[in-house]
Design brief:
Strand content: 5-15%
Largest sheet: 8 strands, mixed
Number of strands: 15
Oligomer: single chain
């Protein structure tokens, strides 16, 4: 293995990276190289870890990044970064293809999925961009942010990656709310643009993020919640309480939290089982209330042992983990335990009636009856017939009882939350808790999925950005199913962060919102500006084509000794 480690080290990888990759690849050099370049057989190789700066600095410490093959972007492409996280001060210059040069690519069609395109990837603060994209799909969130008409000053560069200069008299809170409203409006039918840069938006909402060193998603959500609450209160005069959940600690004090952190030692096959193991443990705080928007962080595996792949449901009832329903759930668990014991007793009795010392009792009785009948022992034959009928009847009754107990046993399974809901319906003293639906999954700042609200129906969107060396060169948005999103989650390597956003179904419902007048006017101006740009671009292209044709005719006429002639005459010469 030493020679292979040396070969990988010469390619720019560290000793630990080379050794780890070779172990994964069973000492196969080519496969190890594939792992290191993000080209493994894993279905969804993830980006560098989200909040572990040390890990990301050493994930792929490549000294010759120019040698990494740049594959064309496609729906089936797997994504992996060659560079780790950088600080906010480490900006990348885009020397590759510019995404904002041709205005014609901006025009949105009915099939277009709007996209917010980052300029760089793997910078801590920019994880807020996919989070805000997800929040903008939530009706209750939009209802608060659009509750007041704020000033929207139109700039012809608002959609690009250029730094916008805020007006000198602009209030920071107003700029924040205006940027949030523009993002919400961009995802509506009011905008005709197919994509915008994340930079203009990020520069207006990122002051709290640029200098901050994030520990995890709860840390990021704390700042997001603080910024939203402060600016919503100061500008819109409303309370923002969509992110704050509450719990009681062991001293009886009320604590707030923004997300639930699901570490590897709490990992079970399903999300509900994992949350149950975490939240019902003696070390856990007692959950008091759940916010309308609930974030769940699935942390990387920090142990040497394997952890199960996590199956995530499209919906669940997080309030069932509060103290309000605990006694009912404990009673269901107690009844299930009794059912299990009764089931064992009945099963043992059925087994004892069917066989003895390896011999089938009924078969033995039938043969004995036949023998007694043949020798004329009528009394013995009748006694055995009665015994056989009695065993048959008892076995039948026990089997029916076992079916009933098995049915009850299944209904008392508290890992299936629908069973708990059915029990709550029987209790007049308890109300049915809200159902929460998954609306977003963030794998990184350049790879995430969200449930898009379209004409009261929902569809899933997967966003992928191509950033081979940290700078975003291209992107793709594509429709997908929840099953595909679930597959991405289950197949994600266990050493990566995943962030899930669940929302109370009440917060997703509501009439279609009307954009404030200033915001509607903003997009009317932008749509007119876009069409004007497209018209100018088409005109310039036509002039360029005409100029090229005339230049070609002049050259042919001069070189060939021919005078300039009408197109119909010179077509054959041009060919």
């Amino acid at each position: 293995m030493d020679s292979k480690i040396k070969q990988l080290a010469e390619m720019g990888f560290t000793h630990d990276q080379a050794e780890s990759a070779l172990k994964k690849a069973n000492n196969d050099l080519e496969q190890a190289i594939g792992y290191l370049f993000g080209d493994s057989e894993e279905k969804h190789p993830g980006e560098a870890q989200m909040f572990d700066e040390d890990y990301n600095r050493g994930t792929v410490a490549i000294s010759n990044p120019q040698d990494i093959p740049q594959l064309p972007l496609s729906e089936s492409q797997e994504y992996a970064y060659s560079s780790g996280w950088g600080s906010e001060s480490e900006q990348f210059d885009l020397n590759g293809p510019q995404l904002f040069e041709d205005p014609r690519v901006f025009l949105r069609s009915t099939e277009t999925i709007p996209a917010v395109v980052p300029k760089v990837g793997n910078t801590p603060g920019r994880f807020v961009i996919p989070l805000y994209v997800i929040l903008c799909q939530i009706h209750a969130f939009n209802e608060i942010l659009l509750s007041k008409d704020v000033v929207q000053e139109f700039s012809e560069s608002w959609f690009t990656d250029q730094q916008e200069e805020s007006p000198s008299n602009s209030d920071e809170g107003v700029s924040f709310i205006a940027a949030m409203q523009r993002l919400i409006g961009f995802f509506s039918t009011a905008s005709e643009r197919s994509f915008i840069s994340a930079e203009g938006f990020y520069n207006n909402v990122s002051e709290s993020f640029k200098a901050h060193e994030f520990e995890d998603w709860d840390d990021l959500l704390t700042i997001v919640g603080t910024d939203l609450a402060k600016n919503v209160k100061s500008v819109l005069d409303k309370e923002f309480d969509l992110l704050i959940s509450q719990a009681i600690d062991h001293e009886g004090e009320l604590k707030t939290f923004q997300s639930v952190n699901l570490e590897s030692d709490s990992r079970e096959p399903t999300l509900v089982e994992s949350l149950g193991k975490l939240l019902w443990s003696s070390e856990s705080y007692e959950i008091k209330s759940i916010a309308p928007i609930l974030g769940i962080q699935i942390s990387p595996n920090d142990s040497s042992g394997p952890v199960p792949s996590l199956s995530v449901g499209e919906s669940f009832y997080p309030a069932l983990f509060t103290s309000k329903y605990r006694s009912l759930i404990e009673e269901m668990d107690r009844k299930r335990l009794l059912s299990a014991k009764e089931r064992t007793t009945i099963t043992s009795r059925i087994m004892s009636l069917s066989s003895f010392e390896g011999k089938k009792i009924r078969s033995f009785l039938d043969k004995t009856k036949d023998y007694l009948d043949n020798i004329g022992e009528k009394e013995g034959h009748e006694d055995l017939s009665k015994l056989s009928d009695s065993i048959r009847n008892e076995s039948s009754q026990l089997n029916e009882a076992l079916k009933t107990i098995n049915n009850d046993y299944a209904k008392l399974d508290t890992t299936n939350q629908e069973n708990i809901i059915e029990e709550i319906k029987k209790d007049e003293g308890l109300d049915i808790p809200s159902k929460y639906h998954l609306v977003g999954v963030v794998f990184s700042d350049t790879r995430y999925a969200y449930r898009r609200r379209v004409n009261s129906d929902s569809e899933w969107v997967l966003f992928l950005a191509d950033a081979p060396h940290g700078a975003v060169l291209d992107f793709k948005t594509t429709n997908c199913t929840f099953g595909e999103v679930k597959s991405y989650i289950e197949d994600e390597p266990n050493d990566k962060f995943i962030f899930l956003v669940y929302v109370d179904e009440k917060a997703l419902q509501g009439e279609q919102l009307t954009l404030p007048p200033a915001l509607s006017s903003f997009f009317s101006k932008d749509n007119a500006f876009l069409h004007e740009q497209i018209e100018e671009s088409n005109h310039e292209n036509n002039d360029s084509v005409k100029s090229n044709e005339e230049s070609t005719e002049d050259v042919v006429g001069k070189d060939g000794g021919f005078e300039s002639k009408p197109d119909s005459v010179t077509d054959l010469i041009d060919i």
